[in-house]
Amino acid sequence: QKYEKDAAFDLLDALTKSGALTVEHASLHIVVAATHCFDKTVTETVVQDNANPIAKVERSTLIMASTMHGATPAALIRDSEQPRVRVASPALFLEDAAVS
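Structure (tokenized):
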């Protein structure tokens, strides 16, 4: 990671001529990728385990998003979806219960 970070800063330094040129109207975009591995296929998980694999993906995505945005999972979910997500992933909302 350090090598890539240094390379990015070296590129920025070269593009701005060591800061002599200003960078106006610029924005920084960060892309975070995540993968999920399952022991079984989606069909096997649903039929054999009677489990919803999408709930696992949704839970991990909410954990990642709440960390990145510094917000509770509840703040990131539409009100209409709250009951469904609370049933599927109650551990995400333990902090809300402690505050109440």
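The mean pLDDT is 88. The two ends are 41 Å apart (CA to CA).
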